Amino acid sequence: METVLSISNISKRYGKIQAVNDLSLDVKKGQVFGILGPNGSGKTTTLSIILELIKSNSGSFQWFGKAPSNESRKRIGSVIESPNFFPYLNPVINLKIVADIKDLDYTDIDRVLKLTGLYDRRKSRFKTFSFGMKQRLAVASALLGNPDVLILDEPTNGLDPQGIAHIRELILLIAGQGTTIIIASHLLDEVQKICSHVAVLNKGRKLFDGKVSEVLAISDSFELSARNMEALTQAVKSYPGFQSMTPGDEKIQVYFNEVIRPDELNQFFFQQGISLTHLSERKRSLEQHFLELLHDNA
Ligand code: ATP
Fold first, then answer.
1. Could you tell me which of 15, 41, 197, 260 has the fewest CB atoms within 10 Å of its CB?
2. Closest among 91, 85, 136 to 110, alpha carbons compared
3. Which of 76-85, 86-95, 261-270, 289-298 has the lowest mean pLDDT?
4. How remote is the CA of residue 221 from the centroid of ligand 1, in Å?
5. Is 154 helix (H, G, I), strand (E, B) or coil?
6. Predicted confidence band of residue 92 (pLDDT cuts 50, 70, 90)
7. How large is the average pLDDT for residues 203-211?
């Protein structure tokens, strides 16, 4: 699958603060990629670097397999700051001004207004818009020219629940049309609901990345028992991904550091001549995983 963005070993320091620390990640075409981390973890700094608003101290990045260029910039739309438009002008005129700045014609304006659900309000002044509508207009503006990638920094910050729902639906709608989306968020729930992939940042460092569905499927541990507990305890240590174990006379709790399928685990013991009398799996939610990662790296 085509790599849209490739970040290699980027670091950015502000005086004593290491805002981004040796960050590498790849975003592929069609992904909804979440950059998840608490406040101050380096999300905005990362987005600002890949949008060339600031320079990194070291490292590099490529858009669409090449160094950033005028051509690649035209393929990227972004909403990094809170929406800022002329208050006394309606969205059509505001978008015409944006189109002029971006050197685009006006033919796309109706499309982006319809897509963001603002077409019916196209004659209202910007200042009469709710905060949610303002945010959607910012997205509409970023979508002018139909970019291949849309970058959003904390798109639901400050919105009420209805506004949040609107923006999330909109993001999924845009993703459904094939646009690659990169979202910075401190909200797990948001990433779980709308992202296909996630990179977790803490203190500027990437702790983890992968498919959201796989992160959700990570099994923390299995509880196992067999008639011959001693054989079980020995055998489990040789299972690929084995991490540690809490021994017990009747049951053992086994921790793995990779995704384990219970049927394969069961088969493995069977092949070793061990019949399990009990197997139960404890799944870890992304939230637990995220909190553990932050805790471990505090
Ligand atoms: P938030 O969600 O709070 O915006 P973030 O994950 O986007 O957080 P950044 O805004 O990238 O994090 O900030 C990362 C670190 O760099 C923070 O410690 C922040 O204080 C620091 N930082 C960011 N910009 C500057 C700047 N212009 N000058 C000095 N320090 C900065």
1. 15
2. 91
3. 289-298
4. 36
5. coil
6. very high
7. 89
Measuring from each residue's beta carbon to the nearest atom of ligand 1, which residues come in under 6 Å?
14, 17, 19, 37, 39-45, 186
Contacts 24+ apart (CB under 8 A), 226-234: 226/269, 226/274, 226/275, 226/276, 226/277, 227/275, 227/277, 228/274, 231/272, 231/273, 231/274, 232/269, 232/274, 232/276
- Measured CA to CA in angstroms, residue 32 lies from 28, 79, 152, 211, 240 at distances of 9, 15, 11, 10, 31
Cα–ligand 1 centroid distance for 86 (angstroms): 28
Q: What residue's CA is closest to ligand 1, atom 26?
A: 14
pTM for this one? 0.79
Q: What is the CA radius of gyration of the chain?
A: 24
Which atom of ligand 1 is nearest to 184's Cα?
Answer: 7
CA of 43 to the centre of ligand 1 (A): 8
Q: Which of 174, 168, 85, 83 is nearest to 131 (CA)?
A: 83
Question: Cα-Cα-Cα-Cα dihedral of 209, 175, 155, 45, to 10°?
Answer: 40
Provide the pairing of β-strand 149-153 with 180-185. parallel
Nearest to 278 by CA among 289, 269, 291, 288: 269
Smallest CA separation from ligand 1 atom 29, residue: 14
> Could you give the maximum distance between any two Cα atoms of the chain, in Å?
78
Q: Report the pLDDT value the prediction gives residue 284, as an integer from 0 to 100.
A: 65
Q: How far is CA 264 from CA 17, 231, 267, 268, in A?
A: 46, 18, 5, 6
